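lol forgot to send this yesterday, sorry. struct tokens for the thing we talked abt
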């Protein structure tokens, strides 16, 4: 993977911190069914701050590493499911920070971005809506949440679903539809007009606050807290989503690299039928196939990051990367569980959790099938042009 000296130095510090400090917290009882508790998150972030690896993909002058440099760093932070939380490289905060850095005004950055960069609070991105309401999911044009201007404020009403980290968040980015089109608003949380109806029970458990269903009831937002311009919300969503999809790939690649390490170590020491498991072709070949998939994931991430670094929106490239990497990592995680047999389905290592998280990752930021459908439409358009 392409890297620079500065990115490699940051990544080395991040990896050392994750392996020597964060890994020891993986069995902490504060890691609950709906994600790690905020007290654990803040404890880890204090340790990351002391180690100089908090929000490592942002430089001291406020600038962001290139996407290829970010990949070098975020892969290392993902070596533990708790690593991105500790280092402040976790979704949805990482994507929200990126968007605010690109679109926010100086005043908005001072009020909403600064505490996120400093790791003092978490954020949530309110876009997806309940399917039962016919709301926006993979098709954002179905958005039902509305916003109406009232003097120097906007009033927002609607429902949202699968809102990661809404429970306990400090900053919210709310998407709603005006007569101009989609809009984004920055809000301080908690707010009594944003009610968490319930936190869903989901297969994954790595994200603080879990994934909530939310009702927004006459939320009043000052006009100067609109992010960008009225009607431009979908454009801003793409600014956020392309690198955010790729960041997911980076972090979960790190997790699968660690799962492969654990499964390989197990296969090399576990004896069966007179020899180590790794010497049985059925096991050794699975681990070999994992090495191939991991290398291909790294190359795909590096290629897509390079496209984004040219200034391109990268929606097509990020769709391809998201599909290829999520599906490959699913194969890797599944084989790691299989290699470890009964141990692989226990909580004695992180392999079982990584398997669950990767299964959910195939749906995060658009299911595989939606991305393939989008790519197929591009093929059809390109064919017509010729």
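and heres what i got for the seq, position by position
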């Amino acid at each position: 993977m392409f890297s620079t000296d500065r990115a490699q130095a940051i990544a080395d510090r991040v990896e050392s911190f994750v392996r020597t400090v964060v890994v020891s917290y993986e069995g902490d009882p504060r890691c609950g069914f709906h994600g790690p508790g905020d007290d654990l998150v803040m404890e880890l972030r204090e340790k990351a701050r002391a180690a100089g690896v908090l929000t490592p993909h942002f430089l001291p002058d406020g600038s962001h590493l290139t996407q290829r440099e970010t990949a070098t760093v975020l892969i290392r932070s993902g070596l533990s499911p708790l690593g991105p939380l500790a280092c402040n490289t976790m979704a949805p905060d990482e994507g929200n920070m990126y968007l605010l850095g690109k679109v926010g005004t100086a005043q908005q950055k001072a009020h909403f971005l600064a505490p996120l960069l400093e790791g003092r609070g978490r954020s949530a991105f309110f876009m997806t809506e309940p399917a039962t309401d016919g709301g926006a999911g993979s098709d954002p044009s179905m958005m039902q949440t509305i916003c109406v201007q009232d003097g120097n404020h906007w009033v927002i009403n609607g429902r949202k679903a699968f809102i990661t980290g809404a429970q306990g968040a400090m900053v919210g980015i709310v998407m709603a539809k005006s007569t101009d089109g989609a809009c984004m608003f920055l809000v301080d949380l908690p707010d009594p007009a944003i009610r968490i109806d319930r936190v869903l029970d989901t297969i994954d458990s790595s994200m603080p606050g879990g994934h909530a269903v939310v009702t927004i009831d006459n939320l009043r937002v000052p006009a100067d807290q609109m992010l960008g311009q009225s009607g431009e919300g979908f454009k801003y969503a793409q600014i956020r989503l392309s690198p955010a999809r790729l960041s997911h790939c980076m972090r979960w690649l790190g997790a699968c690299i660690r799962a492969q390490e654990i499964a390989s170590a197990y296969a090399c020491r576990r004896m069966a039928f007179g020899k180590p498991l790794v010497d049985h072709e059925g096991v050794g070949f699975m681990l070999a196939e994992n090495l191939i998939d991991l290398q291909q994931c790294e190359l795909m991430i590096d290629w897509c990051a390079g496209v984004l670094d040219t200034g391109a929106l990268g929606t097509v490239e990020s769709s391809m990367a998201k599909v290829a990497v999520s599906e490959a990592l699913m194969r890797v995680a599944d084989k790691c569980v299989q290699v470890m047999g009964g141990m692989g389905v226990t909580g004695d290592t992180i392999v079982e959790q990584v398997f669950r998280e990767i299964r959910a990752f195939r749906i995060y930021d658009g299911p595989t099938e939606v991305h393939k459908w989008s790519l197929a439409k591009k093929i059809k358009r390109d064919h017509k042009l010729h």
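The two ends are 35 Å apart (CA to CA). anyway ping me if u want another try
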